[in-house]
TrEMBL record:
<dbReference type="GO" id="GO:0005737">
    <property type="term" value="C:cytoplasm"/>
</dbReference>
<comment type="similarity">
    <text>Belongs to the glycogen phosphorylase family.</text>
</comment>
<dbReference type="GO" id="GO:0005980">
    <property type="term" value="P:glycogen catabolic process"/>
</dbReference>
<comment type="function">
    <text>Phosphorylase is an important allosteric enzyme in carbohydrate metabolism. Enzymes from different sources differ in their regulatory mechanisms and in their natural substrates. However, all known phosphorylases share catalytic and structural properties.</text>
</comment>
<keyword id="KW-0119">Carbohydrate metabolism</keyword>
<dbReference type="InterPro" id="IPR035090">
    <property type="entry name" value="Pyridoxal_P_attach_site"/>
</dbReference>
<keyword id="KW-0963">Cytoplasm</keyword>
<dbReference type="InterPro" id="IPR011833">
    <property type="entry name" value="Glycg_phsphrylas"/>
</dbReference>
<feature type="modified residue" description="N6-(pyridoxal phosphate)lysine">
    <location>
        <position position="664"/>
    </location>
</feature>
<dbReference type="InterPro" id="IPR000811">
    <property type="entry name" value="Glyco_trans_35"/>
</dbReference>
<keyword id="KW-0663">Pyridoxal phosphate</keyword>
<comment type="function">
    <text>Allosteric enzyme that catalyzes the rate-limiting step in glycogen catabolism, the phosphorolytic cleavage of glycogen to produce glucose-1-phosphate, and plays a central role in maintaining cellular and organismal glucose homeostasis.</text>
</comment>
<dbReference type="GO" id="GO:0030170">
    <property type="term" value="F:pyridoxal phosphate binding"/>
</dbReference>
<keyword id="KW-0328">Glycosyltransferase</keyword>
<dbReference type="Pfam" id="PF00343">
    <property type="entry name" value="Phosphorylase"/>
</dbReference>
<dbReference type="GO" id="GO:0008184">
    <property type="term" value="F:glycogen phosphorylase activity"/>
</dbReference>
<keyword id="KW-0808">Transferase</keyword>
Length: 817
């Protein structure tokens, strides 16, 4: 590992800085400091090093003048920064050494850091991986997000039910890796009205907001891997402007005044915990506009400061919209151009529509954002006018392309007609962007064919694919040092930046010694996970068992309940069929359910109750265990993923846009059991049929079954194992004395129509699990498959994804420092 060139590591200086922070920043002494204080002081001292690089990068004339990426996302699920940054800085060993001279163990200190959980799941984590890759590859980038006071809720289990509690991720001392940038603060308006004046016979429209909120930026350093590049992740915090109303203050209306102060602060109080589901709440729209407006203004500030004209914006800035959440940035930029910069509509639109690009992450109808026209009207009256005008002009294009075809106008319109007229954010994005992409080959195909077929005709070439990726630095090098060292010993250490090189280990797949070493690393990682489970949950695990993991948000379409039914089938066979045998298996779940998603919470409850019984039942105990790890987050994923033998990727075909956990698990040598969905399709292409367990209906099968009228009872009646497994849910097997407590899931499948075809895929799933179980019995054969999974995951590096974006969409050139 090499330290950065610009700031060679000076151990004595660093130790001095740590002690200085201990005293001056955290008000304690070497003699009395807690482990937590030592961690804070160490992280602060490291953050200081990166801040110099951040400012230098920011001021580097070549970067100021270069074209840059602005990644706009309401979520960045970055995970802990200290360990990762130590690796990127090439300082892990030196700092470990320095800290040990101060009597501290660096691994213990790293455990003190809380996860900044500023995202829900896939989309937020993807943003974090992309920031890492942009910095590694040195494509000038600024990430723009929100500085939530509370991240995604913490999850615990109370009598097997999910309980949520607030996540104050900064702790009382503040988060050591961030710095406020007060000189870059902005004022953001809401509500109010549009004023119309006439100048030289021309109508001018101008928004007079009724409320102003301050946007305060906090910068987190995104450290490039072994280079001197540091880019900012800029997170906006909402602050009330005080005194916001002198008048009511002077009137003695102090408490009313305080009340409004509280309202403004609320905007970035908490991350909305819905993943793949939108709820049209005012505060959420306020978050979105607050984020977009502050970011767009910051981008324009940088652009103008660099000495460029507004006309040149698309040559110097590209703005990537991470799903539709920041869509309002498009009318906001139009408003600034037209109302504030006095540009013509045509000119403003010409610039705007060459600046934005949009990534779609979902086809689920309930996740496609629409906003009540009346709500936008009240909150952002001028923006609503601009949206109408964008739509009016767009519909002219549509009728020119399809003259007289009213139905085309209805499907494509940005405004959805009806009792409540709604704004379709995805349509606005497609109209206002120069590129639109899906996140895996299959998903992008569906975006073209099913979501936006007419747009694809109207704007040929605009709809594209960029398959997701994951950063190999966090998801192999950092989280799996054992495997990293083994790989490096064989093929050198360049794979961390060129993941394709991993294929060079494929030639060891049949090598018995290598197989043993590979499996020994896996075993060590399983021991580490088992120790965590013993410590935190007091469950004893057999690390020779298959470690079978499903870790992702809880959602019906992801089908954790299919996995649960498989467990029930194993339990049934183990307890009723004396001839049945299987490899010992531990099934791990980790998943948060959105607090308002009742069925998802019932599935968690059911799995927990089943686990409670199975783990205490001597009849099945040495064969089967079920562990539901609470509070799934990046730092626990870093322990589970390296320890997994089996990766569950079992969504209904057509529903999971890509998945990225599937990539992380396969990279760490887990074998996928999965459907033909999302990026599973491409993983199969890479690893080959022998090294993956594909089962279930593909998208054509799903469509045919639905078209022929799906009845879950047909499958229930026809398959005795399925019937026996499901029936276990309605008795009192897992809830003694309280029969029927697990009925909700049963009912959703049988009486609720089984919308995600769980019963239809059950038999095929069980068959694939049986094959996998047999294969695990041949440890050498299994090792070969696992090695090939690691070896053939090169495609799924987020470095490749970023290169695809750069070539197809962003057109950036790297600036090497
Ligand atoms: C929207 C409106 C109001 C409140 C919340 C939301 C909201 C928030 C988060 C809607 C959707 C999300 C998150 C979606 C998401 O994570 N999608 C996942 O994106 C991954 C990265 O591309 C894919 O790998 C997953 O397949 C996809 O489900």
């Amino acid at each position: 590992m090499k330290p950065t060139q610009k700031y060679p590591f000076d151990k004595e200086l660093f130790k001095g800085n740590v002690k200085r922070h201990l005293n001056a920043t955290y008000a304690t002494t070497v003699e009395h400091a807690s482990t937590h204080a030592w961690y804070l002081a160490m992280a602060r001292a490291l953050a200081e090093l990166t801040m110099l690089n951040l400012l230098e990068t920011e001021q580097d004339e070549r970067i100021v003048k270069a074209k840059s990426l602005n990644y706009l996302s309401l979520e960045f699920l970055i995970g802990r920064l200290t360990g990762n940054n130590l690796i990127s800085l090439g300082l892990f060993d030196s700092v470990a050494d320095a800290m040990s001279e101060l009597g501290q163990n660096v691994t213990d200190l790293l455990e003190e850091e809380r996860d900044p959980s500023l995202g829900n799941g896939g989309l937020g984590r993807l943003a974090a991986c992309y920031m890492d890759s942009c910095a590694a590859l040195e494509y000038p980038t600024v990430g723009y997000g929100l500085h939530y006071e509370y991240g995604l809720f913490k999850q615990s289990f109370d009598h097997c039910h999910q309980k949520e509690s607030p996540d104050a991720w900064q702790g009382i001392e503040g988060y050591p890796w961030e710095v406020p940038r007060p000189e870059l603060k902005q004022d953001i308006g809401f509500y109010g009205h549009v004023e119309v004046t006439h100048v030289d016979g021309k109508e001018k429209r101008h928004w007079v907001p009724g409320m102003i909120v301050q946007a305060m930026p906090w910068d987190l350093p995104i450290v490039g891997f072994e280079n001197d590049t540091v880019y900012p992740l800029r997170l906006w915090e909402a602050r009330a402007i005080a005194p916001f109303s002198l008048e009511s203050f002077n009137n003695g209306n102090y408490f009313e005044a305080q009340h409004a102060l509280i309202d403004a602060d609320n905007i970035t109080k908490v991350l909305y915990p819905n993943d793949n589901h939108e709820k049209g709440k005012t505060l959420r729209l306020m978050q979105q506009y607050f984020h977009s407006a502050a970011s767009v203004r910051d981008i324009l500030r940088r652009h103008l400061n660099a000495g460029f004209s507004l006309e040149e914006l698309p040559e110097h800035e590209t703005i990537q919209l991470n799903d539709t959440h920041p869509t309002i940035a498009i009318p906001e930029l139009m408003r600034i151009f037209i109302d504030e910069k006095e540009m013509s509509w045509e000119k403003a639109w010409g610039i705007c529509s060459k600046t934005f690009a949009y990534t779609n992450h979902t086809l689920l109808p309930e996740a496609l954002e629409t906003w009540d026209e009346g709500l936008i009207q009240r909150l952002l009256p001028r923006h609503m006018e601009i949206i109408y005008e964008i739509n009016r002009r767009f519909l002219l294009e549509v009728s020119a392309k399809w003259p007289g075809d009213v139905s085309k106008q209805q499907t494509l319109s940005v405004i959805q007609e009806g009792f409540h007229r709604m704004v379709r954010m995805a349509n606005l994005c497609v109209v206002g962007s120069y590129a639109v992409n899906g996140v895996a080959a299959m998903h992008s195909q569906l975006v073209k064919q099913h979501l936006f077929p007419e747009f694809n005709e109207l704007y040929p070439g605009r709809l594209q694919n960029v398959t997701n990726g994951i950063t190999p630095r966090r998801w192999l090098k950092f989280c799996n040092p054992g495997l990293s060292d083994l790989i490096t010993e064989k093929i050198g250490d360049k794979w961390t930046s060129h993941l394709d090189q991993l294929q060079a280990i494929a030639k060891y797949a049949d090598d018995k010694t290598f197989q043993q070493r590979f499996m020994a690393v896996k075993k060590e990682n399983k021991e580490r996970l088992a120790a965590w489970v013993k410590d935190h949950m007091d469950i004893d695990l057999n690390t020779d068992a298959i470690f079978d993991v499903q870790i992702k948000r809880l959602h019906e379409y992801k089908r954790q309940h299919l996995n649960m039914l498989h467990i029930l089938s194993l339990y049934h066979r183990l307890t009723t069929d004396p001839d049945f045998d299987m490899q010992p298996r531990v099934v791990f779940f980790a998943a948060k359910a959105a607090p308002g998603y009742h069925l998802a919470k019932e599935i968690i409850y059911a799995i927990n109750k089943i686990a409670e019984k199975i783990n205490a039942d001597p009849r099945v105990n040495d064969k089967l265990k079920v562990v539901f790890i609470p509070d799934y987050r990046v730092s626990i994923a870093e322990i589970i993923i390296p320890a997994a033998d089996v990766s569950e990727q079992i969504s209904t075909a057509g529903k999971e846009a890509s998945g990225t956990g599937n990539m992380k698990l396969a990279l760490n040598g887990a074998l996928t059991i999965g459907t033909m969905d999302g990026a599973n399709v491409e993983i199969r292409e890479e690893v080959g049929d022998d090294n993956i367990y594909i089962f279930g209906l593909d998208i054509d099968g799903v469509n045919e079954l639905r078209a022929s009228g799906y009845n879950p009872y047909d499958f229930y009646q026809a398959d005795p194992l399925l019937k026996a497994s499901l029936d276990l849910l309605v008795g009192e097997e897992f809830t003694p004395g309280e029969p029927g407590k697990l009925r909700t899931t049963y009912d959703s499948l049988l009486n609720g129509g089984d919308p995600y075809l769980v019963l239809a895929d059950f038999a095929s799933y069980v068959e694939a699990q049986t094959q996998l179980d047999l294969d695990y019995g041949d440890q050498s054969g299994w090792a070969k498959k696992a090695i090939l999974n690691t070896a053939l995951m090169g495609k799924f590096s987020s470095d490749r994804s970023i290169q695809d974006y750069v070539k197809q969409i962003w057109k950036l050139t790297p600036v090497k420092r």
